[in-house]
Amino acid sequence: MSRSKIKFDFTPDPNVLVALTFTAILPLDALCELIDNCIDSFQSATLSGQRIDSPLIVIELPRPSELSRGEGIIRIRDNGPGLTAEMAEKIIRAGYSSKNKFDSLGLFGMGFNISTGKLGQVTYLYTARKEETEATEVTIDLGEIIRSGNYDLDAYRTPKRDGIERGTLIEIQKWWPDGNSNSQFVKRLIQYGMPALRAEIGRRYATLLREKKVRIVVNKENCEPFYHCIWHESRYVERRGWGQIPAKININKVIYNQRKCSECAADIPPELDGCPSCESSYIRTVEERITGWIGIQRFDNATLYGIDLIRNGRAIRVGEKSAFFEFVDDFKKTIYDYPADSNYGRIVGEIHLNHVPVDFLKQDFIRTSQEWIRAMSFLRGESSLQPKQPNADRNESPVFKLYQGYRRVRTFGKIDMYMGYWDPDKNEPRRIDREVEQEYYEKFLRKEPGYFDDTEWWKLVEQATTPPVEELPLCPYCGSQNIKEHDTCGSCGGILVPKNCINPDCMQEIPKSALLCPICGISQTPKIEEPWTCAICSTRNTADRGTCADCGSLRSAESTMSYDYLRKHSNKSDELSLPGCSVLLADGSYSSLVDVHTYITNGPIIPYGQKESIPLVIFKGEFIEIFIDKSHMVFRNFRIRPEQMIAAEVALFIYDMNKQLSVKQYQGQHTLSNIEWQILKGKWSEVLEDNPEKIRSDIISFFNMLKESLPDMLDGIVADVFDDLNEDVKKALVINMMNKGEDISRIGEMKQDGTFLKYLDEEAVSSLFQAYPERFFDGLFWKTPYSQISGLPEAVIAPVRSRIKHTYGNCLADISGFARDRSPEPGISQRARMSLEYLLQKVAN
Question: What is the 3-state secondary structure (H, E, C) of 681-735?
């Protein structure tokens, strides 16, 4: 069969060319744009009454080795209804916008051009419809279009390819050369690693994947849907004035109805029968229906909480926090509602806002739109979530209700619905260890029965408020129950806990507590022939003595100053411990990391032979362990803080470990007081000083140091970095330059040498890290290995890199957010300090 030639108009709209020039998009977002097109095809088929059995999207991505050779291909294929030639022309034409803006993910036609153009120079599109005998194919060669200036494309009607009866196929190849702003774009996509890509796609399209409305395969492996680890909706807490508040609240509510023009999407007032903008008489009623759920995660976390906001099956915002947990009052003051009392949150959810418009990159909903404002008013109300704040008494929103039940975790167990265990010493519930939490969560991810559902988790909630029932062992001889501590049966006298008689001529089984053998009459107390040392006064005693010749203590007496005794009579204090303690030394290096574990004793610490107690005892080995008596008079009467004494002891340890710095060159620098001050400042600045401005000043200094290094770190791509900045960042950049008296006419020169980077704000620097993490590690700024990790499979390396990026990114987000916040709470200040110290410790020399 011969091919017939037709023409497609590919001339872009001038406004779209401007958008394409200044648009920055992440590689994963570009891939998702193409996935959205496939999903839209399934949606359009459903709306037109066509049935698509087992909707499937197959993605093939090149290997890193292929990219390094300039080879490989990106292929995205769906088994949807396919496109007519006219539809295909519109989709590839930059600036085309579908009339149906309400039922699809892709609001803008130029998403196809941006995504494919970012990934490669040449895009091939093939589409076939079941009812047609021919398919449509067209090749878009951007390099040739740029060179020729001709936007006409040759498209063809051609016989269908074998195996593709219907559906659409997109192939992207010929990667952009070095020097082009998109030269590293496809490489960055592949560097995510296939497991990370599948996981992210599984999160963004979780609802569609879970409901089996589509299956997405990346390099022959399925993308598994993400599941929130939440309590079942049958679980609840009880609160005065609220009654039972379930752990999951389902939402399905129409909050408003709009009249929209089907042609141009303009609003049509109730009194009109036609569109005032385009005069069309086709009117559509659009429901502002909010569906989904909000609920409580089974564990709290510093970052893994927040509500996913979804539009037509794709998560636009993952773990959204500020929209729900911050409130700006009438005086423009931000009230931070959640988390309360700590930095850990557990409110999560999935909310579908199909009617709310999004920006053209689908990074966020348009928060100035009336649709967004009405949705937030319904979901979280028009007041702070805190019940004593103004207008909170009129707040009846679902988030407000859930917040009242779960804003704090103060009592572990059923009261606050949190896992724990019963501490018999304290006679109260205690929090479960986070390692146990992590173990349970990993089993949840593996979907193990009892852990994927909340059965096993709930057992830990119940055990926290239920003192364990003492076991009553059964007698193996008569079947009677006995007290656990008894070694003989109270009914028949049978031996429950046996031992053998020490007489070698007897060796009969006798009760463990027996002092004399009932068979041979021999004493069961072994004779100790060796001399022994008194644990109290260290006096050496002869073997026949039962008490110490010097102090009179029993031979079995335990020293109250011994490690074992102190450990049994004290409790660990996380607040006074120093995990990974390290300080900046006089020579500019950081001291070796040392873990300091601090314990609060249950009573005074009194050395042998003394009448007065001492404040603390320290044990030094693989790590430092400090036992401190917080009731000592030095803390009660002399206003000395435990933190100060602990810092002094640790400072002495670090000083002794670095005695080589006690030379004239560092005179006055390598001192106990300087080291102690660094420890206090680094760990307990909020506790002892309570000065957020100092933290903010240190953060700004850190960012200044980082920005000074950026031109070298981003060498070779600084011009591309500038081009990728969005308009808001560029505006802020110009304002910062003007505020510092810089000549803004030099912006072109600064773009080339990278000096513009020092005028970026902290949030923009954090965004640069997210875009180019490989430029910050391996000694370029931080000494942590990243790109240089080798010798392991990609499947192993990718999650490690992802975790490194996640850790550093969270720390940068903490400190950049703190720098903007003018009235931080103490807990937030402490978190910012710890994040800053972590980032400083990793700076390369």
Answer: HHHHHHHHCCCHHHHHHHHHHHHHHHHHHHHHHCCCCHHHHHHHCCHHHHHHHHH
Separation CA 215–CA 758 (nearest Å)? 45
Q: Give the integer Cα–Cα distance in Å for 274 and 267.
A: 10
Long-range contact list for 262-265, CB < 8 A, 24+ apart?
Answer: 262/99, 262/100, 263/99, 264/99, 265/99, 265/101, 265/102
Instruction: Please give the C-alpha separations between residue 803 and each of 140, 306, 438, 797, 798, in angstroms, as whole numbers.
Output: 38, 19, 15, 10, 9
What digits encode the pLDDT tens for the residues 652-695? 999 988 888 888 888 888 899 999 998 888 888 766 764 677 78
Describe the chain by its helix, strand, coil percentages, rounded to 5.
Answer: 35, 20, 45
pTM over 0.85: no
Cα torsion angle, 584, 590, 592, 597, sign: positive
Q: How would you classify the pairing of strands 624-628 and 594-601?
A: parallel
| CB distance 298 to 231 below 8 Å | yes
Confirm if 761 and 736 have CB atoms less than 8 A apart.
Answer: yes
Q: How far is CA 224 from CA 200, 215, 457, 488, in A?
A: 10, 9, 23, 57
CB 157 within 8 A of CB 135: yes
Lowest mean pLDDT among 436-450, 573-587, 817-831: 817-831
Rounded Cα distance, 166 and 80, in Å: 7
Collapsing DSSP to helix, strand or coil, 227 comes out as: coil
Q: What is the pLDDT of residue 19?
A: 41
Pinpoint the alpha helices (H) of 252-369: 322-325
CA–CA separation, 687 vs 646, rounded Å? Answer: 14
Could you tell me the two tokens for 722?
């500038």
| 3-class DSSP state of 56 | strand
Q: What is the 3-state secondary structure (H, E, C) of 541-610?
A: ECCCCCECCCCCCECCCCCCCCHHHHHHCEEECCCCCEEEECCECCCCCECCCEEEEEEEECCCECCCCC
Exposed/middle/buried for 812, CB within 10 Å: 0-12, 13-18, 19+?
Answer: buried
Dump pLDDT digits (tens) for 220-272. 999 999 999 999 999 999 998 899 999 999 999 999 988 878 777 777 887 78
Backbone angles phi, psi at 455, to 5 degrees: -60, -55
Which position has the token pair 């598994």? 224
Instruction: Give kind and range of the element (H or E) at residue 816.
Output: helix 794-820
Instruction: Tell me the one-letter amino acid at 275.
Output: C
Round to whole Å and give the CA distance between 624 and 648. Answer: 13
> Model confidence over 415-469: pLDDT tens digits?
999 999 888 767 788 888 888 999 999 999 999 999 999 999 999 999 888 776 6
Residue 234, helix vs strand vs coil: coil
- pLDDT score at 643: 92
Model confidence at 8: pLDDT above 70: no
Asked if 309 and 315 count as a contact pair (C-beta separation under 8 A), the reply is yes
In whole angstroms, give the CA distance from residue 176 to residue 742: 35
Radius of gyration, alpha carbons of the chain: 34
Count of other CB atoms within 10 angstroms of residue 147: 9
Rounded-to-integer distance, Cα 312 and Cα 295, Å = 21
CA distances (Å), origin 725, targets 53, 415, 718, 768: 43, 49, 11, 9
Q: What phi and psi values does residue 433 have, to the nearest 5 degrees?
A: -65, 140
CA distance 482 to 748: 88
Please write the tens of the pLDDT for every residue from 154-208. 899 999 988 888 999 999 999 988 887 888 899 999 999 999 999 999 999 999 9
* Cα→Cα distances 182→24, 26, 54, 673, 720, Å: 10, 11, 35, 53, 8
Average pLDDT score, the chain:
86
Strands 306-311 and 345-352, sheet pairing = parallel
Note the pLDDT of residue 110: 60
